[in-house]
Amino acid sequence: MSLVLYPAIDLKDGACVRLKRGVMDDATVYSDDPGAQARTWQDAGCQWLHVVDLNGAFAG
């Protein structure tokens, strides 16, 4: 049996962030280079990536 991981990158204002309790104004930036973050997941062996545009999601 194999395990498939689906890492996620949430984007806000062009940076990779994590929201605290889903609050847009309470975001922790963990990378300002989404491309480099995606490559990190790829280098770790992940074949898939879930990307969320938070600005678009919150704007509707």
Describe the structure.
Strands 3-2-1-4 form a 4-stranded mixed beta sheet. The model has no long low-confidence stretch (mean pLDDT 95). A hairpin with a 2-residue loop joins β2 and β3. The chain is of the alpha+beta class and 60 residues long. It has one domain. It has 2 helices and 4 strands; from the N terminus they run βββαβα. The longest helix is centred in the middle third of the chain and has 10 residues.
Q: Could you give a short description of this structure?
A:
With 60 residues, the chain is α+β, with helices and mostly antiparallel strands. The protein has helices at residues 34-43, 54-59, and strands at 8-12, 15-20, 23-31, 50-53.
Defining key terms:
about 60 residues, about 25% helix, 4-stranded mixed sheet, globular, alpha+beta
Spatial separation of the terminal alpha carbons: 39 Å
Total domains: 1
The number of helical elements comes to 2
The structural class is alpha+beta
* 3D shape: globular
Q: Reading side by side through the largest sheet, how are the strands ordered?
A: 3-2-1-4
Specify the helix fraction band. 25-40%
Indicate the proportion of strand residues.
35-45%
Number of strands: 4
Indicate the mean pLDDT: 95
List SSEs in N-to-C order. EEEHEH
Q: How large, in whole angstroms, is the Cα Rg?
A: 13 Å
Give the uncertain stretches in residue-range form.
none
